[in-house]
Amino acid sequence: MSFSALFPSTIPFFRWCDQTWLCNAIKGTTWVFPLTETIHILALVVLLGSIMLLDFRLLGIGIRNWTPWRIANELRRYILWALVVILVTGWLLFMAEPMKAYDNMAFLPKMTLLFSAILFHYTVFRKASSIDKLYTPVTAKFAALVSLFLWFGIGVMGRAIGFV
Amino acid sequence: MFSILGFCQWLQDTSIGTQIRESTLVFPVLEGSHLLGLALMMAPVMMYDLRLVGLMWTSDPVSKVKWQFLPITFAGFFFMVSTGVLLFWSEPIKCYNSLYFRVKVVFLIIAGLNALVFHSTIDRTASQWESTIPTPTRARIAGFCSLITWTMVIFAGRYTAYNL
């Protein structure tokens, strides 16, 4: 399930990334990668944690005194900034070893899930979580389950990058 | 005579520790779950801290914010501690020798003391100030201190795995 197995024609892009100034600069140091990865993890805690709070609320678990709309509204900026940080650090991590990403079996699934999750979050999920009632309909619960599946999937695949 | 190193050596040689260490799947799954538990616990903790600092949920009293998030915090805490204990169990000697693991323990203790001091002093009179903005200086300090110390715990935790 890697780029090398499914989309070998993308190799010029990965090769080009591998020769950029940025890639060589990151490879030339030992401290940039761990620091970037740690900031990536911190942003993950904020992003995944907040989205889980919202998902659980839609499923009827926890924070039941507030409507989904109120929670989503309060969390919006928080989620957006965590997403920006996680994308920037994630991009830096990719630029540190593009050829590894090309061959990695978990990287392509992770990117596929990531773009699906962002798209889903700002379209269907945004609408589903804008209910200003204490009771949530089945459709919103279903959207919460899809959201959990997508964001967990990214986490699992991200963890797997280091092992496959 | 009891020594921490002796205890770590004994723990490392137990069959549970050895089995986790030698399994290819259990360790990464535990690490991933530990991170998930972290997100589950830290998101609501940060929400409460940010309320104490006065940056989020300011239209609700502190105690209401607390009771909305506390059950999820406990669930995440339980999940995180149980996976954390198993992770430590699998490589206690490595943790013993790791500077970052020691830093992590120190910050965990500071985070615990901060919560203890907050709940046994200024939080006791919360009913008098919980709806006023800005919150009392001591509540803001406690919230800020919690945010910083937990960030340091996550930071040192990630760095423990790098063998630096």
Q: Care to count the β-strands of chain B?
A: 0
Assign the structural class of chain B, choosing from mainly alpha, mainly beta, alpha/beta, alpha+beta, or little secondary structure. Answer: mainly alpha
Q: Give the % helix of chain B.
A: over 70%
Describe the main β-sheet of chain A briefly. Answer: none
Strand content of chain A: under 5%
The SSE order of chain A reads: HHHHHHHH
Strand content of chain B: under 5%
Number of helices of chain B: 8
Biggest β-sheet of chain B: count, sense, barrel? Answer: none
| N- and C-termini, Cα separation of chain A | 11 Å
How large is the radius of gyration of chain A?
A: 18 Å
Tally of separate helices of chain A: 8
Multimerization state: heterodimer
Q: How does this model look, in words?
A:
The complex is a heterodimer of chains A (164) and B (164). Chain A has 164 residues and is an all-alpha fold. Chain A is 78% helix and 0% strand. Chain A has helices spanning 3-6, 11-18, 21-27, 32-59, 68-96, 98-103, 107-128, 138-161. In chain A, helix 4 (32-59) runs antiparallel to helix 5, helix 4 packs antiparallel against helix 8 (138-161) and helix 7 (107-128) packs antiparallel against helix 8. Chain A is elongated. Chain A starts with a helix and ends with a helix. The relative contact order of chain A is 0.16. Chain B has 164 residues and is mainly α. Chain B contains 8 helices and no strands. The mean pLDDT of chain B is 90. Chains A and B meet through helix 4 and helix 8 of A and helix 3, helix 4 and helix 8 of B.
